[in-house]
Amino acid sequence: ALKVAAISLQRRYRATVLSKQQREKFLNLCRAVIVIQSTIRGLLVRRYVKQMHLAAAAIQATFRMHITYTRYRTMKSACVVIQHHYRAYQTAKQTRDLYLKQRQSA
Known about the structure:
Elements: H1 2-105
């Protein structure tokens, strides 16, 4: 009876030790999985943030280009108007000078 009790205690002890070892292995595996997941998630987030940064830079560049082109068109239009007025002034002056010459010689 004593031998059976000792064997029973040894079995229970070995089962408890084995159970603790298996639990520790499982917890280590869980920790490793968590580290891998956090590393991958961090990598993906950094990649996403980089893409967003590049997209924002592209949008800003396009917007700046639009503003610059709009200013250019406005200035070009203003130049054309100024040239038109100047040429009209020159033509009017030449016409007036010609008229005054003809009037003087007559």
